[in-house]
Specification:
5-stranded parallel β-sheet; 6 helices; globular
Length: 134
């Protein structure tokens, strides 16, 4: 009997490989981001694209706060053109990370989204820092 899961055929394995391989060029996850940040020079700039008020309440250590609407060429001029950015926002219910990634891509920067955002970070058991803890 067909249901919402089985009514559409799954992609052929070759197509699935291409699709899922491509996902890793667009996003990373909280665990891999956390692991990379432990090394001192992770090879990317982590951007918290939420408001300054939310950033102050709690953010990932080492993140730079730049709300997605403020990502403009003049603010990004301090970064080398090949700087990789990883964006995050509140979580899967928020599209701020995608909005930021789009702005960065339009400015010709390489970019990935950290899937899960703050919600995913906390779900993994990782801590946030506040302005009072910096």
């Amino acid at each position: 009997m067909k249901n919402a899961v089985t009514s559409d055929c799954a992609a052929a394995p070759e197509a699935a490989v291409r699709h899922f391989e491509a996902e890793f060029s667009f996003e990373t996850d909280c665990w891999d981001t956390h692991d990379a940040l432990k090394n001192g020079d992770p090879g990317f700039v982590l951007l918290d694209v939420r408001s300054a008020a939310l950033f102050e309440r709690g953010h990932i250590a080492g993140a730079v706060n730049l709300p997605h609407a403020k990502i403009i060429a003049s603010k990004m001029a301090e970064y080398a053109p090949d700087t990789l950015f990883v964006t995050y926002c509140a979580g899967p219910h928020c599209n701020g990370a995608a909005r930021a990634a789009l702005r960065l891509a339009r400015l010709r920067f390489p970019v990935k989204i950290m899937a899960g955002g703050i919600a995913g970070w906390l779900d993994e058991g990782f801590a946030l820092e506040t302005d009072s803890s910096t």
